[in-house]
Amino acid sequence: MAEPWPPYSSSSRGKKKRPRSPNDDATSSQGRTENSTSLEDNLIFSDTLIALQLMRTQFPKLEKSQLYSSVKDRTQVDRDLESLKKDRVLRVFKLNTGQDDHAIMFMDDYLKQMESAVRRSKGKNQDCSEVFEWFEKYVLPSKLDVSIDHLELCSLLSHGGDARDKHITLLMNAGLLTRQLIDPNMYWFSIPSIGPILKGLTQVC
């Protein structure tokens, strides 16, 4: 499993808490979903989370990162990832590398990347831009998998308004969704502007 981003407590030695700092009580930045858990507010750390944080500080200088090579207990890594996903600390993305590569991104970082993509998209086209709010408010908190089918996507978006194909096209153009080649009714959740990272990862591989 490859990650462009990335922890601290032992899976076998229990969980550890870090001391609180004044920054822990700081106001959350705009654009962060209410259901997401910021990294600063997450006091329980695992070996998996520590490894991910280390990779995060080194990115993008790392040529290639392997979470499983950083934390030897693969079963515990998988458990930790599921827990962190449910707590909205991070998201996992399927990478279009032709291999079984996945990216792990902290939600705070992903939402910032999403905000930039939304600003660029709104600058080009104001029509249907409300779909970005629907996507962040109704789709991201409800769907934690790496993919989503067309009917479920439309159903979740409809909580915000009348979701149509043009709304989904806008999400795809912003780099938030990628249509699967083998099944056009399925979409991968994607990271905006990830192209250069994928290119570098493919060259390293």
TrEMBL record:
Against InterPro entries, the record matches this protein to: STK19-like (IPR018865)
Please note every region of biased composition (Polar residues): 24-38
**Sequence segments annotated as region (Disordered):** 1-38
Which Pfam families does the entry link to? Stk19 (PF10494)
Annotated signal sequence is none
Hey, which family's this protein in? Belongs to the STK19 family.
The protein's name is: Serine/threonine-protein kinase 19
Annotated organism of origin: Aegilops tauschii subsp. strangulata (Goatgrass)
Tell me the lineage of the source organism.
Answer: Eukaryota, Viridiplantae, Streptophyta, Embryophyta, Tracheophyta
